[in-house]
Amino acid sequence: MIIKRLIFGITYCLLWYISILVGFFLFICPLLPLVFFHPKLYRKWSETVFGMWEPFPVALLEIFFGIRAVLSGDQIDPFERSLLIMNHRTRLDWNFLWVGLFHCCHPYSHALKYVLKSAVMHVPGPGWVMQTCSFLFIHRNWSKDKRLLGRLIQYLDMSEEPYQILIFPEGTDLTPSNISKSHKYADEHNLERYYNVLHPKTTGFAFLAHKMKLSGKINAVYDITVGYPGRAPQNESDLLKGNFPDEVHFHIKRYSARELPTAEPDLKQWLTDIWKKKERLLTNFQAADGNASERMMEREIRNSNYTVRSDGSEKQLPATLGASSANKSQTDGGLPISDSLKSANLDDAENIPTTSNYRESSTSNSSRPLLNRYRPSHLLYLTFLFWMALIDGFQHIIASIYFYRYKIDPNRKDA
To answer: Which of 17, 240, 332, 351 has an alpha carbon 20 to 30 Å from 390's alpha carbon atom?
Structure first.
C-alpha cells in the first residue's frame, strides 16, 4: 500500500508540473509579444489558458485518487469582483481548492488571483505562469507590500474583466509551532486562544477591501472554511508520498459588499469576528463523529440542509461543514441566507443563489445553476485527455530537438 501511494504521489506531482511547463511554453510564451502591443488582450488570453489548465489537477485528484469534495453554502459568482478569504489548514489548501471551485463556480470562468509569498514567483514553471496571470506576491514587509498591492489593484481595476482575489489572512498553515505563536499573540492581546485556526493578520485584508470598496470595484466577500475529516496532507512531501485526503469539506458564505464597513479599523474587526465564528465552526466539525447530527451545527452561519459530493449524490447535511437553516430557524428564529439578505433590503440579494434557493426552485421552472448541480465527470475526463495529449506531444518535441541538436538517430542500433 505504501509503495502504491508513493507511485501515485510521484505520478501526480510529475503530471502536475509537466502540464504547467507545457501550458507555459506552448500557449503563454507565444503570447508574450502582446505585452508590448496589446496588454489587455495578453492578460485575457493568458488567463484563458490558465483557466483551461485548472480542471486538469481536479481531474487527477477526482478520477485517479478518488478525492471527494463536500460543498455547502453559497455558490461563487465568477462575474463578481470579490475577495475570497480562507483558513489555511495545510500548505496544500490551494491545491484542493481547485476541486471546490470547479464545482461551485457557475459558469466555471473565474479569474482568481492568489496572494502568495514572494518566493513562489521564482519557482520555474508555476512561478512564471502566476506572474503572467497577475497573481499578488507579498514580501512580509508592509511598506513594500502596501505599495505593490496598491499598484496591482489599480492595474486590475483598469481592466473591464471581473476578478477575484484569494487571501489567506492567517499568513501560514496550521502547525503546532504556529499554533503556539498564535496562542502567544492571543495571550499578549487578551484574546481567546484558537486551536483550529490561527489569529488572522488583518492589515492586508483591510487594505485590499478598503481600496476595492472606495473604488466601487467589489461586489462581495466570500468566506471559505476548509476542513479535512480524516487524513490531511500538511506539506509538499505528503503529496510525493501519496498521502491524499479522502474528503475535503468546503463551506462558503457570501457577504455582500454593502455589509462591509468602509474604514480599515472596522474591516480589521470584521475579519476578526469572522475568524471567531470559523473557530467555532471547525471545533464542532472536528469534535463530532461522522454520523453526529451536531457535526456542523454552527449558530451564526445559515445555510440549507443539503449538500452534494463529487459523485453527484445529494445527502442530508449532518456530515458537512454547513449548518441547517431549518434547524437554525427552530433554535433562534433565524432565516436562510437569501431571506435574511432580502429583509435587509440589499439590492443584490435577489441575485445571490444559494442551495436554499435550489430546493425552492426545483419544483418551479428555474434554470439557475446552483451549488448542488455538480459538473458531470465526463468533463474532467475530456480535460485529462486533452492535457495528456499535449504532454505527450511536448515530450516528442523535446526529444526531436535533443536528437537534432546532438545528431543522434533515435532508430540507430549500436553494434
So the answer is: 240
C-alpha cell at 331: 433554535
Determine the Cα–Cα distance for residues 45 and 49; give it in Å rounded to an integer: 6
- Classify residue 392 as exposed, middle or buried by CB count within 10 Å of its CB (0-12, 13-18, 19+): exposed
Residue ranges of E strands in 215-354: 220-227, 247-256, 306-308, 314-316
Q: Find, among 83, 75, 93, the residue nearest to 375 by Cα.
A: 75
- Please report, to the nearest 10 degrees, the dihedral formed by the alpha carbons of residues 330, 331, 335, 340 taken in order: 160
Note the pLDDT tens digit of each residue in 108-166: 666 888 998 888 888 999 999 998 888 888 888 888 899 988 888 888 877 777 889 99
Residue 33 burial (C-beta neighbours within 10 Å; 0-12, 13-18, 19+): exposed
Please state the domain extents for the chain: 2-405
Note whether 390 and 19 are within 8 A (CB): yes
Of the candidates 100, 41, 92, the residue with the CA atom closest to the CA atom of residue 233: 92
Q: Are 83 and 168 in contact (CB under 8 A)?
A: no
Q: Are strands 164-167 and 82-86 parallel, antiparallel or unpaired?
A: parallel
Whether residue 336 has a cis bond before it, omega within 30° of 0? no
Range 133-144 burial, b when 16+ CB lie within 10 A, else e = bbbbbbeeeeee
Across-strand partners of 68?
247
